[in-house]
Specification:
The protein is mostly helical. It is about 30% helix and about 0% strand.
């Protein structure tokens, strides 16, 4: 699918994706007004990532008053091992 007017954004995200495949992972925050195509850009990037790339995505609640930390609350399972694992 072609995303009109999103070439620069897609190039930026593709560069981050390529860098993440050869080094430490990356995180991107996509924000903007409702209806400007955030979801379409993210879905396009996820499709281009390939099956060997783990992509975690979150979204805000569709509420008038979102809960605190809603997008960041639980996008990934807790670490079971590694340097950030709970004691």
């Amino acid at each position: 699918m072609d995303l009109l007017g999103r070439e620069t954004v897609l190039q930026d995200f593709t560069g981050h994706l390529q860098a993440a495949t050869i080094g430490p992972g990356r995180m991107a925050l996509v924000l903007g007004e409702s209806g400007i195509g955030k979801t379409a850009v993210v879905e396009h990037l996820v499709q281009s990532a390939g099956p060997h790339i783990q992509v975690l995505a979150g979204a805000c609640d569709p509420l008038a008053t979102p809960r605190p930390h809603g997008p960041a609350d639980g996008p990934a399972p807790p670490a079971s091992d590694g340097p950030w694992a709970p004691p």
